[in-house]
Request: fold
Amino acid sequence: MIKNIIFDLGNVIIKGSTIETLMHFTDNEDMAKNLMKYVFKTEEWKLLDLGNITREEAIIQMQKKAPKEYACLIEKVMKERCKYLTINKDTVEIAKKLKEKGYHIYVLSNMAAFTYEYFQEIDFFKLCNGIIISAYEHIVKPDEKIFETLLHRYHLIPQETLFIDDDDTGKSFQTANMLGIQGRKVKPNDSQDILKLLQAYHIEI
Reply:
């Protein structure tokens, strides 16, 4: 029987960066698409998730690798992007109902420290029994060590634990399932798909 629900943050609780988000920084769609590549597809972004580089260091390295005309945009995106991200209120409401039903709520997310710190006062985190953010652990999903950290730190039984993530590679679920954690990929920012997943595990809210 499922007793614990693990939520990812990006594209599950927090609606992630999209072209629409980046259009707040430029009215040129091609430049917005390039910003996706020059910011979110970089090695520096991975290092931020690992907590192995500061935001300021990442900005400098990203600017060096991108065309000069993107330098100011990269800095603005890195410093101001969070204020254009939104909370998925429907999914937070699902988490509230789960909590009321007696389920334990956890977070396991690949995220830079500065992004988590921007959002750490939101109501969702008040529901959580435990939070694991990759930047503070210096491990990222799908490494099994970050899953084991969550299980051991909060004394969770894998078979009693359901993992909710939008990971499109499937690798995080391979690791989770290998350890005995239940779950499947959900559609990004789709609270209805989360409800379908819960129903598949006979969880009614």
